[in-house]
Amino acid sequence: MSLSVRSLTVIRDGTYVLQDVSFEARREFVLVAGPNGAGKTTLFLAVLGLVPYRGDICVDGVCAEERARRVGYVPQILARGFNATVWEYVHLPAKFRKLSDAAARAEEALKIVDLYELRERPLYSLSSGQLQRAAIARALATGGDVLLLDEPLANVDPQGRIELLQLLRELKKSRTVLMTSHELSMPSDLADKILLLNRRVVAYGTPDQVFSEEVLRKVYTYVRIAKTQYGYVCVTEDYAHPH
Ligand SMILES: Nc1ncnc2c1ncn2[C@@H]1O[C@H](COP(=O)(O)OP(=O)(O)OP(=O)(O)O)[C@@H](O)[C@H]1O
């Protein structure tokens, strides 16, 4: 459950989308932050071997593209499908990979995300938060000691967010989880590390290290993050100086 990225460079249409990106994560929860176009999704696609890249990417010491089998990926935009049930959505990828215990894996994954009771429901009937949890179960069912979650908190209501954060806390106990988010307010016990990207690694460290004004200024002009009793709270200067 370790991910090691060394000197990763991705060029698309002649432009450097990622340049000399290096970091390691081992059974940690890493929040991948950075502005639009910073290369966060591209980093995930490179780990999965879906874009051409230079550099070394290894999962549990496996650096060839078979490493992708050890990675669970939840993309930013989730297809609701039309006729699939929750069970089919979670079970079928594991079955198509001919995993002998596909049904047991799907069952366990659905229990982990607390959707087992809803397994016969059509996918389209789920709320956004439930759909996100179903997508996480789908990734868990095919493997996934390293989980890559692209914006799982987007479009999720506050109650769904609490449920998802609770699930993420559980998942990180036995896995390496990378999650992208533009929402930097979060409980202080969630992220072990913050990877602040802007095509290069701007900073990689603990939230206290990266959420400092000095580091954030390198990427965001008007953003501040305060550590409060509620966790890290992100405010922009228009809140700090109301009109
Ligand atoms: N298929 C592609 N061909 C060429 N350039 C691409 C392609 N996909 C993405 N890019 C470019 O790569 C850069 C990084 O995109 P990426 O989606 O990785 O950023 P991101 O940090 O995930 O952004 P966001 O926060 O908006 O989701 C962007 O400038 C984008 O235009």
TrEMBL record:
<keyword id="KW-0547">Nucleotide-binding</keyword>
<keyword id="KW-0813">Transport</keyword>
<dbReference type="InterPro" id="IPR003593">
    <property type="entry name" value="AAA+_ATPase"/>
</dbReference>
<dbReference type="InterPro" id="IPR050153">
    <property type="entry name" value="Metal_Ion_Import_ABC"/>
</dbReference>
<dbReference type="InterPro" id="IPR027417">
    <property type="entry name" value="P-loop_NTPase"/>
</dbReference>
<dbReference type="GO" id="GO:0016887">
    <property type="term" value="F:ATP hydrolysis activity"/>
</dbReference>
<dbReference type="InterPro" id="IPR003439">
    <property type="entry name" value="ABC_transporter-like_ATP-bd"/>
</dbReference>
<dbReference type="Pfam" id="PF00005">
    <property type="entry name" value="ABC_tran"/>
</dbReference>
<dbReference type="GO" id="GO:0005524">
    <property type="term" value="F:ATP binding"/>
</dbReference>
<feature type="domain" description="ABC transporter">
    <location>
        <begin position="3"/>
        <end position="223"/>
    </location>
</feature>
<comment type="similarity">
    <text>Belongs to the ABC transporter superfamily.</text>
</comment>
<keyword id="KW-0067">ATP-binding</keyword>
<dbReference type="InterPro" id="IPR017871">
    <property type="entry name" value="ABC_transporter-like_CS"/>
</dbReference>
<protein>
    <submittedName>
        <fullName>ABC-type Mn/Zn transport systems, ATPase component</fullName>
    </submittedName>
</protein>
